[in-house]
Amino acid sequence: MEQQKVKEQVERIGIVCDKDGMPPLAGRMVGFFMLAEPPHKTFEELVEFLQASKSAISTTLRFLEGQGMVEYITFPGDRKRYFRLSVDNWDRVILGKLDFLKAMQTRVTEVIASRSDQYPEFNKGLKAIHALYDIFLEGMPKLIQVWQEKVKEM
Predict the structure, then answer these.
(1) CA distance 131 to 56
(2) Which of 33, 90, 123, 136 could form a disulfide with 85 if both were Cys (CB 3.0 to 4.6 A apart)?
(3) What mean pLDDT is reported for the chain?
(4) Per-residue pLDDT reduced to its tens digit, 23-80
(5) Are 70 and 85 in contact (CB under 8 A)?
């Protein structure tokens, strides 16, 4: 694929990730890994393509590794580490977001219990948020199972 088209696609993926709260460089890095051929890149290749400082690349790699989105591999006889998207890990990445949802649901439960009845419409909205968390927390593991079955069929 032409280098300019790759850069444009990387930016579009980066924007989507940025809108989801991911740091901009992390989103661009995810996009680069999705498009990279071969799918693994050295640290130096990341610095060169993303035009970012070594410290920014290092920090972003640690962030994405911590999220379970990026991993590194090595090859016999080669001292370099090669980074790539953890394509086998996405169910765990999504399930990891459930921890956030559970924590927020707990906080919303506490808030609902501590509020007065003076603002019933607002309280109703908080209860609706709580119900939405319930749906996600119950449904997401089932959706992951459906996805895992679909992957087995591929």
Answers:
(1) 39
(2) 33
(3) 93
(4) 999 999 999 999 999 999 999 999 999 999 999 999 999 999 998 899 999 999 999 9
(5) yes
Backbone φ and ψ of 116, nearest 5°: -80, 175
Output the 3-class SS for the chain. CCHHHHHHHHHHHHHHHHHCCCCHHHHHHHHHHHHCCCCEEEHHHHHHHHCCCHHHHHHHHHHHHHCCCEEEECCCCCCCCEEEECCCCHHHHHHHHHHHHHHHHHHHHHHHHHCCCCCHHHHHHHHHHHHHHHHHHHHHHHHHHHHHHHHHHC
Residue 54 and residue 35: Cα distance in Å, rounded?
21
Q: Report the sign of the C-alpha dihedral through residues 78, 79, 82, 88, in that order.
A: positive
**Cis preceding-peptide flag for 141 (omega within 30 of 0):** no
**Pairing between strand 40-42 and 70-73?**
unpaired
Reply yes or no on whether the pLDDT at 1 is more than 80: no
CA 22 to CA 142: how far, in whole Å? Answer: 26
> pTM of this prediction?
0.77
